[in-house]
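Morning!

As promised:
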Amino acid sequence: MDLKWVYWGIDVLAIVLVVRSLYREKSLREQFVAAMVLVPLLLRAFFIK
Amino acid sequence: MFEKKNKASRITATAMLLAAVAVAAVSARSYLEMRSPPPGVDRVVPHKGFVKKHLSDYFDGIRDTPADTDVYIQTGAEPGGTVLVLGGTHANEPAGVIAAVVMLERAEVKRGRLIIVPFANMMGRSHTFPQDAHPQTFSFTTASGERRTFRYGSRTTNPVYEWPNPDIYIHPASGQTMAGVERSNLNRTHPGVVDGSITERLAYGFMQLIKTEKVDMAIDLHEASPEYPVVEALVAHENAMELAAIVTMELEFEGIPMRLEPSPVNLRGLDHREWGDNADVLAILLETSNPSAGRFRGKTDEALILTGKDKAYQKASELGRLYVPYEGGSEPIAKRVARHVTAVQLLADNLELVREGKGVTIEGLPGFGELTTNGVGAYLSD
């Protein structure tokens, strides 16, 4: 079974949750942390093959 | 700057989001370029007489896959033995790759056959190892001023071709257990598996090449960290030990220090063990000292790859923590390539002594002094 779409789905779910947190955070510091977490998640979405 | 009292807003969140997307896009583009490098990167100019084949000509199981790689064969006028030289089993060991390329572009075979595979694991060339901060390419300038650029890859196959790895890799031929990542390490998967993972199939392809071409001596070119015990070394299967001892002494006579290491019987999956056990071939592995792959290194850039100059290694050397001399605080790639080329030349020169009628005569290769004096670029074609 090709697990590619399962990995991709998990990654996209994580991106959605982090973006949601990014908009809910009340401090710039926490927003910055959320943005940093997003980078590897976006890269992973890009590279899952 | 980012104290909690600073109130965030939707505008700052959007700005952060856009910044994250921009950073990811730039990084992704840079990494994707390694998978499809621009024209000219990793270009080779084989010396006349070399015939190009593919590893998939020996094992169809890797045809049209990213594992397939070019195999160059030159046959001399006089019959003799067959020597196989591999570079790039580990794509983060650049002297092995470049020594194979120099031999491919300079060798004139007078007797026997020379087979060269400059990029043994193509799947290791399309990425660098996460968090190692290695540059993705490095370059040389040829005698006429042309730039020759090569990729600096990783020790293992790119996970996009083979992922996820198991927690523990069980070497199929022996049952020996290793760290899971070793399933993607070409030099832990020999003699390969006909229907295994892509790296195991690549290893199987090399085994078929050795058997089909009746290779008499197979040499794999590597590099290791200066703090690793097996460095500036020649590792030989027991059936190649006599030849390896002769060549080690000759290298020492020429002022090139070389350790002679027996291939461990109980360390499976390595080419010098599996090739020798599974075929009638003298299996040898060569190691030079490469600070750019070491754990002590500081700033990791193209200069470190080319010069091997590093303050942390200088300090480690002064403290006696290295297994090899670190003269002048550097270990230039020209010297490392010269060690490989000289050792291969001597191994071929002496092959006749241990395999009667199977000698191989190679001319045109630069000597140790020439390479270290003139640099690698002087021996690369335009």
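DSSP finds two helices and no strands in chain A.

Hope this helps with the figure draft.
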